[in-house]
Amino acid sequence: MSKQPPKLTVNLARLISHLQLCSKTQNLSRAKQIHSHLITNNFHSCPQTTTSLISLYSSLNLPFDSLSAFISSPHPPNLFTFNAIISSFASNNLPDLALDYYNILRLETVLAPDKFTYPCAIKACTSLGVHCDVQKIHGEVVKIGLGSDKFIASALVRSYLEFGFIDYAQKMFDELAEKDVVLWNSMVNGFARKGDFGNAVEYFRQMGSDGIMPSSFTLTGILSVFTAMADVFCGKTVHGLVVKSGFEEGLSVSNALIDLYGKCHELVDAVAVFERMREKDLFSWNSMISAFRYSADHGETLRYFVRMRHAGVLPDAVTLAAVLLACSQSAALMHGHGIHVYMITSGISSSSDVFVHNALMDMYAKSGALADANQVFNMMPAHDVASWNIVIHAFAAHGLAAEALELFDAMCAARVAPDEVTFVGLLSACSHTGLVEPGRDIFQRMEVEYGVVPVMEHYSCMVDLLGRAGRLKEAQEVAEQAKETGVWRAYLAACKMHGKIEQAVEAAERVVGSEPKESGGYVLLANAYGSAGRFEEVEEVRGDMWRKKVRKVTGCSWVEVSGLGLNTFVTGVLDHPRGIEVCGVLHGLVRQMREFGCLYHDILTQGIDQDVEEASATIGAISIRSQ
């Protein structure tokens, strides 16, 4: 007499409950222990156990362990088991296998797909881009009477929106008599993913008008829309709805709010949401760190990275790229080097993540550590166009034009197509070293041979190249050809360099005429008048700025001091505890400059009609805020 499978005892029910808990807590080691116990006690032969194991490994992103549990079951799979394995493949980016097992199920004589099978099959077809198979499934579900099922309808709506069949999606939605939050989410989030923000917002409003309470998925979707639109006002309205609906404790919703406020430069609100969160995951920290990076608050970016490490949260590629960018923008070489050490010790440096390696190389390049940048480049397992651009620009910035040109040849030999940024670096390299003819050649070839149409940056480089060489007439012709305001700035600088003050004034007046609301043009014009000794016009320019309410952007710079961390210098702010000492040193420097006669000359060349004492007071207003 054959041994019968064990009955579903209380013990087995408890073990299945433990499996579900492992899935929720992502505890793989405990799951493996329970799986072993199930096999040892011959409980794994129960179809319910097999289904639970498949679902468990699927939630842990281990689809092939799910497949192993499916295959090793001693009994033929039932519909629940088939649905679990199809769902496992569909949700773990294996759509080919999901459709294979869907087709195997369809060949079964005693089993047939149900309302839980079809959504997974539709998702797999969508991932593979086979819209004709989606339409076939649509016809099949209508034929068997499941066309109005909310799960299937939601999957079809999402699929049609993904394929751009908006009319189909809207027709399906309008024809359904009963619309639940899942179906509304399909419309809101479907349009959001396609970048059709107008329709996404409209369906969200209709949803509220129909009295449908949003879910956390709805809120994260609509917050992503307002983030992309930089609409912080509507985002704050949704925040109020989040609080009212009780979703403020939700991790995904809080992360979406931080992302919204961060990208809209509302740092106070972003910090408030972050600090109220009881639980913070990697995405929470990344959103907060990125928020400071968006607002160029490099000190806080680095400080929150340190907090993240102290909290025991391991950074990923997104974190490291954001922090390295902050280091490069503030020339915080010691911080950046420390991150590089962490990458080596954690094994990240040996990965093939080009994005992180590019950020590391850029940090070294912008911090003046050219040898380190070049070493990172040489050790990278793979390069993209950004990798080549970073090191070409690094050589250009250090006046190594020959090396930059050689690297460009190597880039072409590696069959990496150059882009606009590449040619800016090459032309800049030629400009800094006076290579007029090689620069001309590159400028002429870039569109003909490489299909890169010159833009303002390229014209500016050419004007700068010709202007430095004293070929002002040719530089003016290039500026006229460009028809871009920014190019005239380069021409203006060349004119001042060669003492052509009247031409410099003319160029500055062009800039102001094109940018009447920007402070930069006015500053250039005032400086040009000052260089020409026309101080009455300087006062007129300043008066014009005052009348038009044009404000000059506050000056700010950073310096990293060993033992003192990153320090920020802000014009007109005096709040550092050692600010008096700092100002004393600066006043001493001003006095020495005055004694050697260089300060007054600098005032004249900059067009600042103020006496030495006023200049000293201005410099003394700069303070250091220790980061």
From TrEMBL:
Pfam families: E_motif, PPR, PPR_2. One of its GO terms (molecular function) is RNA binding. The keyword Oxidoreductase does not apply. It comes from the Eukaryota. InterPro entries: E_motif (IPR046848), PPR_At4g14850-like_plant (IPR046960), PPR_rpt (IPR002885), TPR-like_helical_dom_sf (IPR011990). GO terms for biological process: RNA modification. The keyword Repeat applies. Keywords: Repeat. PPR repeats lie at residues 180-214, 281-315, 353-383, 384-418. This is Uncharacterized protein. It comes from Asparagus officinalis.
